[in-house]
Amino acid sequence: MFALVATVLVLSFVSWKLKIQSRLSNTVSILAMLISGMLAAQTATKLNHTPMLERQTTTQMQAVILSVDQSRRGAARYFVKPIMLEGFKASKIPRRLRVSAAAKHKRMRPGEVISGLVRLQPVSGAVYPGGYDFSFFAWHEGMGGSGFFMGQPKKLEESYSISLGEQFTIHVNNMRIAVENRILKAMPSTTGKIAIALVTGNKTHIPAETQNSLRKTGLAHILAISGLHMALVTLTVIWCIRFALVFIPSLALRYPIKKWAVCAGFVSATTYLMLSGAGIATQRAWVMISVMLLAVLMDRRAITMRSVAISAIIILLINPQSLLSPGFQMSFAAVCSLVAGYEALNNRRKLQAENIFIPVNQNLLVRASTGMFGYFSGIATTSLIAGTATAFIAAWHFHQVAPLGLLANLIAMPIVSIIIMPFVLFSVLLMPYGLEFIPLTSVSLGIEWVVDSSRWVESISPNGNIGLLKREAIFIFALFLISICVLKTKLRLFSVIPLLILPFLLKALKMPDVIIAENGHAVAIKTDNQKLGLLFPRGSAFVQNILLKAWSNGEAEPLGLSKEQCNRERCIVVLPSSKVLHVLYNPKLIQSSCNRADILIAPRLWWITRLWWINCKETVPELVLKRYDFERFGTHALYINRVSANANNETKILNSNILSQEIRVETALPEATRPWHRVVTHPDEVNNY
Questions:
Q1: Distance, CA of 323 to CA of 244 (rounded, Å)
Q2: Are residues 501 and 573 in the same domain?
Q3: Over the stretch 290-334, which tens digit does the pLDDT of each residue have?
């Protein structure tokens, strides 16, 4: 830490000295900014003290509810600050937990104290080796685990002291719940649930079918409160305030009503930030809007690459981890591309305007037609630029693109901009008077049009699943995007170089022969048709969907296994490589599997019984993976290499996880060197679990 601080100070001083004497100052400044980012990340990590659960455990819990939503199945889900976990030391209690309650009970509110027997589990890591690490972002948000109540939770009348920040969070969340209830009362259908997502950011009420449709057509960004929503709300307020003040000549002619409107817009943006739950994406949008509004107050251009850079610096200083989030990457890729693209278009229009004669007297029809054409061409240009800039990032993170996203946005965005968001704003303003149902009628109609257009585009759209991409591809694309957006002169031509390299990196990655998820509920194998087949199709749907999109075009290959081959106790399958795989859940079948299996996997025993080790007395399988392996190393991917008999002694063992010369193992958590990766105590040393 001291070395980073000293380096930043030295480089900053050198840059200041070189600024007058040499152009080398720019290079030194860039290096100082880079190391400052490393310092910010290190500082954020040092200041975060979030204990992570080691393994699954059942315990009594008392906690203060901070927020409430619901799971996909409609069960109440509480985000809590645990006060007491039976059997845990105070230093080992996570700062935050997310616990669901499926049993029927009176749903509690933020600020109340909840108690009950809970089954807790650690935050899962990456679904596959090298994938999106959920524990990384959960740790930075203070969440050390999740789970569910085993029975009905109880409300306690006790009170605990909490910080002022937590009290403010509880107050805001209660206000959000009240707003959600008012919207659902006026719009009880699916449109009301989407309206809730637009106002409070809570998407848990929306049916999965509707969310999938919007995601496949490139309209999922409508549900995430980001720069689009923040800009529409803020600009609507600014326009309304200025329009109203124009009709008061004594104010309009003497005072800076534009700046008054901008201040009102800032207040509305801040209110929207709190009402939406102040998620990371919304915080990022608020910072960007605030920087642009500040530029207007200082009589500077609001939308410039400098404003975007200042916003990015502020966000990364506050939340350095957001650099790795899909939201940050897609937001700034879209904004940078739009700023650079419209600057180039405006410069070209200025050159063309000098040689084009525009008649002054045009009839109303011609002017209206020109205005409509300009509006829709602007939407098309914006969608094309932003969609192109974010498509590759979306493909990297979600293994999916929207082939007809431009068409869907051309249909939906005018409805969102003109009807939905302005009337959503008016409905919130009218809630204190009980008149929110008036604008919500228009909102409901607009949402229905958007959902219908999304389903129509989905029906004619080809499959957008493109599979898992190489890690190098995203870096090359980022280099292309930065060079084409930042460079101004003929140096911009150098951006063609990474663009030419990119196609050579789009080759699909090798599919694992077997992949076993960390929780043990999702096991997939490679079939002869080079697709994934699921041994337990009714397992963890979320994990299975990610695996299928990554390697199997989103579809599972039917395996046709009988109940004798695959059931709740054991699953036996012969792999294309002729290896016999046993996935074991019943401890009574250990010896039988030891004698017959080439690969023996025991990720979980059914329900309660635990299998920490396997003692094969006779024939030992080539590879044995036990529960502790999955708790310690996360998801396992097995690659079976065909090695000739003469080369057995010459096969190079790549790492310590390889237990057979013919089987290569990759894990999602190869080393527990990061604070967000739990360090699991060996079962022989466990006394508390």
A1: 41
A2: no
A3: 888 998 888 888 778 888 888 888 888 888 888 888 888 888 888
Q: What are the angstrom distances between the C-alpha of 3 and each of 41, 44, 58, 158, 480?
A: 14, 16, 44, 48, 32
Backbone angles phi, psi at 641, to 5 degrees: -100, 135
List the structure tokens of 320: 């350095």
CA dist 409 to 136, 219, 339, 456, 472, Å?
32, 7, 19, 13, 30
Tokens for 153, please give them: 């939770």
Burial of 466 (0-12, 13-18, 19+ CB in 10 A): buried
CATH number of domain containing 70: 2.40.50
Is 98 in the same domain as 74?
yes
Cα angle: 343, vertex 346, 351; to 5 degrees: 130
Alpha-carbon gap, residue 477 to 389, rounded angstroms: 9
pTM value? 0.81
How far is residue 608's CA from residue 41's CA, in Å, rounded to a whole number? 40
- Distance CA(143)–CA(547), nearest Å, equals 25
Using only C-alpha atoms, what is the Rg of the chain? Answer: 28
The length of the chain is 689
Please tell me the total count of domains within the chain. Answer: 5
Report pLDDT for 116: 92
Mean pLDDT to the nearest integer, 333-354: 78
Q: Is the dihedral of CA 626, 631, 637, 642 positive or negative?
A: negative
The mean of the pLDDT values for the chain is 82
